[in-house]
Amino acid sequence: MRVLVLGGTGFVGRSVATAAVARGDQVTVVNRGHRPALDGVRALVGDRLAPGGLAALGDGTWDAVVDTWSADPAAVRSAAAVLKGRAGHYTYVSSRSVYAEGATPPLNEDNPVVDPDKTDFLYAAQKRAGELAAEQEFTGPVLLARAGLILGPHEDVGRLPWWLTRLARGGPTLAPSPPDLPLQYIDARDLAIFVLDAAARGLAGPYNLVSEPGHTTTGELLTTANEVTGGRAELRWTDPQVILDAGIEPWTELPIWLPAGSSDYQLLHQGDVTKALAAGLRLRPVRDTVADTWAWMQSSGGVPPQRSDRPRPGLDPAKEQALLAEQP
Prior knowledge:
By secondary structure, this protein is of the alpha/beta class. It has 11 helices and 13 strands. Helix 6 (about 220-230) runs parallel beside helix 10 (about 285-300).
């Protein structure tokens, strides 16, 4: 295929461009040019938020477009409008955050979604508005790739990299119980393969894109991460209420973790992926995701890039040790 990636040098966009090149596709990426483009792609420079920001596309045409934008939905609307009639398929990488609270899990694609004009959750509002913009402006099939937690090499949000760095440091390490708590996530490389295959087949509409329930657990993820970083950490499994009472924030200070039974846990870790699995979604083992992320971190000097629009996650060592010291 002739594939256009709007972005293409960051985390998910980079994974899509890499997978497309590996498939033998003709790949064009367009972005602000702040990071080097991959080998094997045609790189164009453009700022989607500026007037005429996609002028570099000229009169080009593509079989498939993949859009990973996660901020002002006006950028999605303008891109979809520019590309209608010039591309055969449009994928917008959305989020499972678009689902409205209060639904009974497991959550599937038919569950109610937020009204972007009424929700107080800015990220959910932007993603849902981005979905609507793509569907309203583009004249061909639009795939809404509702990804959950995204992990893997080149992660620039910092969740799995933080855990790997913390476990590599070793010593007693705060770990939220229970170890058998199920987690759902998707490796960015598996997300990339799915959306490219879906574009080739002309699939449209929403798809929940995370691992199936039971793919991994908190215990397996952290134990594997400890093993690949040298096995120097002693995981101290701690009751979630003790962690919360200490003022430690799930997701931000303890990345990836959400307390079982919370509305956020139900949203992100109790999703129904039957539709995506039937359409060909395949997930690599958690060990591959963890080990490959650690190998990438080591090859890049151990300090992965951090998105400027997201706070760096992680727990202050002094705060962690203070809580551990209070435990029997």
